[in-house]
Specification:
The protein is an alpha/beta fold. 30% of the residues lie in helices and 22% in strands. The chain has 18 helices and 28 strands. Mean pLDDT is 90; it is low at 27-34.
Length: 578
């Protein structure tokens, strides 16, 4: 296998505020994850534990009660601030309201809300009652909503007057849905205000279901991935060590709570640590984002490669026109982090973005780059301490270093999914020879760093050579004319497959005619040959305005391939408009 040369961003480890000594925790996490952090979380006397209680209620009666928990900014200059005590009491009112509707432990309570304070209170209130909470991205349309609500058997749905219109005419298809709660209606606002601010949180057991989120595949309906309250251990520790959150930090996670990142690391885990969070309810806008970083003096920023590339396209000078010296730690999630994005972070902010890899099914970071780790540019990083990772073949047998295979993990980490809702066969399919098979292809180097190749069904085999689409995309993105690229394998009689690239240009006006575009295609092909490998260059390049992505920012190569080959594109409920 062609392996990249080791390009490091070296860290002065003494300069970082490193969380507790990792070596002290590693063996504890391997043997008994509970013991390593039991004293840092709040357990009920009967052995129960609740995510929401640990997020807000446990701060009541401590100095953190009066500390700002949420700095919210919406559209039209709307702002709001909540302390931990206020959020604890407001979520108690939501819990009491749910109880008044007949909600009991195990019932499914879903949220179809934009990033407004009501969303955060509803999530916490639902968890406090022992209900199973589900969040749905506010851009979902009717079919995506029906699929999730029908499969989950959701009893209560929180939404707004405007978003509720997307459910018109669906009543007969959702027999389990007893009430749609409109959080911006006078009826609800009056009713919630009358609810008691006191509530005795349900003593959920570690194995009790806590939240469920839906993932989409190439075929079939979305799958409901179910998690349990015991995941709190993994979620808490990774937020503390990988995001390196400390009491005086101002933290911004740009992910929407409709996705697992926005739920776990945008609500629950940071508040367990008593951290002040910024939430921006508006659309992406480069200047607005920089203004938020400046205005709130954000110190720790967790965002996505797609957003980073969009910021890159606006240039370094714009970044430097803002006073952003408060930033001290940058992290990335959602899709692989291109090397150029890491280098750009160093040039633009004086800080490297630290990649993290995990999935809805894992509910917590699995592959990480600690603040104190030397970064191997382009790699995924290393497994979180206590996580046993390996590269295995299709039978679940580990393969030697520098050998491509399936990225796999030993089952049993605290935040591992506990079920696929009403689909035991699908759940079992994730496990082979006592390994959880992630569905990603990767390899491990001699230093223990892992390198992403692509989704198992994305890897290209051309003239007998295997090519990972991500490495070709990364090479293309480093060219100064390119903003983004999506790469697929296209069937070819001679070579089996050829590499085809779909490219988004930074400035299309520079290439006004076919001759200039053809010259650029040739230039890009030679650029990939020079920077990657001769067999990996794209034999076909198509310039497009926009790549198909999920709303969490992942490039949907299967959509590109399906459109290219005239095939059905499968479930598109998580896709941006394309």
């Amino acid at each position: 296998m062609d392996t990249p040369s080791a390009e490091f961003i070296r860290k002065d480890k003494a300069a970082f505020r490193v969380a507790p000594n990792l070596a002290d925790y590693t063996e504890a996490l391997k043997s008994n994850a509970w013991d390593s952090v039991k004293g840092e979380l709040t357990w009920f006397p009967d052995g129960g534990i609740n995510l929401a209680y640990n997020a807000v209620d446990r701060h009541v009666g401590t100095p953190t009660e009066g500390k700002t928990a949420l700095l919210w900014e919406g559209d039209n200059n709307a702002v709001a601030t909540y302390t931990f005590g206020e959020m604890a009491r407001l979520s108690n009112q939501y819990a009491n309201y749910l109880i008044s509707l007949g909600v009991a432990k195990g019932d499914r309570v879903f949220m179809f809300l934009p990033r407004i304070p009501a969303l955060y209170a509803a999530v916490l209130g639902g968890l406090k009652t022992g209900a199973v909470v589900g969040t749905m991205f506010s851009a979902f349309q009717k079919q995506a909503l029906v699929d999730r609500l029908e499969n989950s058997g959701a009893k209560i749905l929180f939404t707004t007057n405007e978003l509720a219109k997307r459910l018109d005419g669906t009543k007969d298809t959702l027999p389990d849905l007893q009430k749609i709660v409109l959080v911006d209606s006078p009826e609800f606002l009056g009713g919630i205000a009358k609810q008691s601010e006191q509530y005795d949180c349900v003593h959920t057991k570690p194995e009790d279901h806590s939240f469920m989120l839906y993932t989409s595949g190439t075929t079939g309906k979305p799958k409901g991935v179910v998690h349990a309250h015991k995941g709190i251990v993994h979620e808490y520790v990774t937020a503390k060590w990988v995001l390196d959150l400390h009491p005086d930090d101002i933290y911004w996670c740009t992910a929407d709570p409709g996705w697992v990142t926005g739920l776990v690391y945008g609500i629950l885990a940071p508040w367990m640590l008593g951290i002040t969070m910024v939430v921006h309810g508006g659309r992406f806008d480069t200047n607005a984002w920089y203004q938020i970083l400046k205005k709130y003096k954000v110190t720790v920023w967790y965002t996505a490669p797609t957003a980073i590339r969009m910021l890159m396209a606006k240039g370094e000078e714009l970044v430097k026109s803002y006073e952003l010296t408060s930033l001290r730690h940058l992290c990335s999630v959602g899709e692989p982090l291109n090397p150029e994005a890491i280098r750009w972070g160093v040039k633009a902010f004086g800080l490297a973005f630290h990649d993290t890899w995990w999935q809805t099914e894992t509910a917590g970071m699995m592959m990480i780059n600690f603040p104190c780790m030397d970064i191997k540019v382009g790699s995924m990083g290393k497994p979180f301490p206590g996580i046993e990772a390996a590269i295995v073949d299709d039978a679940g047998n580990p393969v030697p270093d520098k050998t491509e295979g399936n990225l796999a993990f030993r089952p049993g980490w605290p935040s591992m999914m506990v079920d696929i809702w009403h689909n035991e066969e699908k759940y079992k399919s994730y496990f082979v020879n006592n390994w959880y098979i992630s569905g990603d292809r990767a390899w491990k180097d001699e230093d223990g760093y892992y390198w992403f190749i692509g989704r198992a069904d994305d890897v290209i085999k051309t003239s007998g050579e295997r090519v990972g689409p991500f490495e070709v995309e990364s090479a293309l993105v480093e060219h100064p004319a390119v903003t983004e690229a999506g790469v697929i394998g296209k069937p070819d009689e001679l070579r089996g497959e050829i590499v085809k690239a779909f490219v988004v240009l930074k400035d299309p006006k520079k290439y006004p005619d076919q001759a200039s575009l053809d010259a650029l295609k040739a230039e890009l092909g030679e650029y990939v040959k020079k920077h990657l490998a001769g067999h990996a260059y794209p034999r076909e390049i198509e310039f497009i305005d926009k790549l198909p992505k999920t709303r969490s920012g992942k490039i949907m190569r299967r959509i590109l391939k399906a459109k290219e080959l005239g095939q059905p594109i499968g479930d598109t409920s998580t896709l941006e408009e394309y």
